[in-house]
Amino acid sequence: MMMMKSKYFAGVGWVAAAVIVCSCSAPAFAIGVSATSSAELITDTEDPFFNSYKYTFEMTWDFGDGGGASHWDVILCGERQIGFDDPAGTSTPPGPDDDPPGPSEWVGYYETNGDSSVGIPEGVVLVKWNNPTPDPWSAGSGTFWFYSTTGPGQVGTFTDRVVVKDGTAPDLWGNLVGVLPGCEPTVVIPEPLTMVGMFMGVCGLGGYIRRKRRRA
């Protein structure tokens, strides 16, 4: 379910994350789909997604004689708390140098029941980016992102983990080179102030229990 505000989380559980930054790249190609990803920890305390990871995907696709992309998915390995900006991605189809087309804005969704429109069965967890107004161009490229409280735990080349949907041409399946959230929840590493607060809270609880026992 998408919440209509500038930044939102969807999913299950909250896990603070350790500092890991990974980045990989791969060349784009003509007919087909190419995707790379990177991850960075959000350290700005004013950011609504502070202490979570931003996963960024650079993607290029070409349907050949097909129509425009309506949405694309990246498959994850387990349920996570996933957050999105609004928009959660932008893309630009190719165009003449003297008349470049404007960018398209994409909306992010977190799905736990697959995507039957591209043959992904129920129970498969994925992130989907939807283009509310599909471009008429058969090719394009864009930058898409989501946030997760789970740090990078998978690094390398992922076979058939991304798919682009088009209404008239066959779906494009491709590999992803880069990083994805880990399959296991990230170990909680609290901020220093959080540690102080936890210590004070435990001390306060201990004092309350001792006082209660004396009164009894």
Structural description of this entry:
The chain is mostly beta strands. It folds into two domains: 179 residues; 27 residues. Helix content is 11%, strand content 41%. The chain contains one helix and twelve strands. A nine-stranded mixed beta barrel has the order 3-4-10-7-8-9-5-11-12. The longest helix is centred in the last third of the chain and has 24 residues. The N terminus and C terminus are likely disordered.
Write the layout of secondary structure elements.
Blueprint: E1 7-10, E2 22-23, E3 32-41, E4 53-62, E5 69-75, E6 82-85, E7 89-92, E8 104-111, E9 126-130, E10 139-148, E11 152-166, E12 172-181, H1 192-215
Parallel strand pairs: 3-12
Antiparallel strand pairs: 1-6, 2-3, 3-4, 4-10, 5-9, 5-11, 6-10, 7-8, 7-10, 8-9, 11-12
Report a brief summary of the structure.
With 216 residues, this protein is mainly beta. Helices cover 11% and strands 41% of the residues.
- Any idea what the shape is? globular
Assembly state of the chains shown: single chain
As laid out across the biggest beta sheet, the strand order is 3-4-10-7-8-9-5-11-12
Largest sheet: 9 strands, mixed, barrel
The tally of domains stands at 2
Helix coverage percent: 10-25%
Instruction: Detail the poorly predicted runs.
Output: 1-6, 11-30, 187-215
Mean pLDDT: 74
Provide the structure class.
mainly beta
Distance between the termini: 50 Å
